[in-house]
Amino acid sequence: MTAAVPITATERHVSLDGRTSLEIRHAAHADAVERFDTETLRRHFLVESMFRPDEVALTYSHVERMVIGGAMPVTRTLPLEALKPIGAPTFLARRELAIINVGGAGRVSVDGATHELAKLESLYVGKGASEVAFASAKPHDPARFYLVSAPAHATYPTRKIGLAQTRTMHVGTRETANVRTIHQVIQPDVCPSAQLAMGFTVLEAGSVWNTMPAHRHDRRCEIYFYFDVPAEARVFHLMGRPSETRHIVVANEQAVLSPVWSMHSGVGTSAYSFVWAMAGDNQDYADMDAIAMSELR
Description:
Layout: E1 2-7, E2 10-15, E3 20-25, H1 30-33, H2 38-45, E4 46-47, E5 55-61, E6 67-72, E7 78-79, E8 95-101, E9 106-110, E10 113-117, E11 122-125, E12 132-136, E13 145-151, E14 159-161, E15 167-171, E16 180-186, E17 197-203, E18 209-216, E19 220-227, E20 235-241, E21 244-250, E22 254-258, E23 263-268, E24 273-280, E25 289-290
Parallel strand pairs: 3-5
Antiparallel strand pairs: 1-2, 2-3, 4-22, 5-6, 6-13, 7-12, 8-11, 8-13, 9-10, 9-12, 11-14, 15-16, 16-17, 17-24, 18-23, 18-25, 19-22, 19-24, 20-21, 20-23
C-alpha cells in the first residue's frame, strides 16, 4: 500500500515504511517550455535529490515511461518495491533495469543471487525478476546505486558488466576542451536488452564540454545523470529547441530529463562524469540528428 502526497506540478508516492518514494514527472510540450522560468524549468526536468540514506528514491517520467532513481543503503538492505504507478505486483514484472554503482562497494541481490558491484561496475536485470535488493559493504562508505528502468517486451538474462567489459571510445581534443572516454554498458554488442541503452562518460582534467556539437534524436529520449562533480563546481546543462535554448545549473549527483524534441549538451566549471541512458524506438548509438553550431540560439 502507498500514500499519495501531492506536490507542485507533480505527484509523489511513498511506501508506508518510508523506504521507497516515487515522484511523477509529466511530459511537457516544447511550445510550453519556451515560456518556463528557471524554477519551472527545474521542477519539470531536474531531479535534484537522487540519494538519501537508507532510501530508494525514484522518479517516473511519462516520456518513454522511464524510471530513474538512487538506492543508498547504509544501515539496512533496501528492496526495490513496486509502488502504485508501476502498475504491476513487482517492479520488474513488465520492466527491465540497469544499475551502476557510483559510490562505495555494494551488493545487489536478484532472486537470491548476489552480485558484488564496485564503483563504476554495472548490473543489467531482465524483465520478470521478482526480488531485487541493495546493500552496502561498509556503512561508512555506502554504495550509491543509480537505477534506470524502462518497459520491456522481452526477457534478457541478468548480467554484471565490469569496467573491462564495457565498449570504450576515446573522443574529443584538448583544443576544444572535451577530451573524454565513453563507456558503452547496455548496448546490443555489449549487453543485450529489450530497449534500454546506457553508458557513462568520464571527462579528463582540463576538459569541460560534453556532447558538443550537440544533437537530438526524435526516436528516443535521453537522461543525463551527473556525478563526480566537485562540491564547488557546477555543470550548465543545455536543452530546448536549437532555436530556443535553455539551461539548467546542475550540481553533483543530479539528473536532467531530456525529451525527444530537446537538444542535450553541457559544460562544467571543472571536469566531471555522467551516465547517459536512453529508451525509445531503437538502440542504434549513432542514430542522432546533428545540430550545426550556426543553428544554436
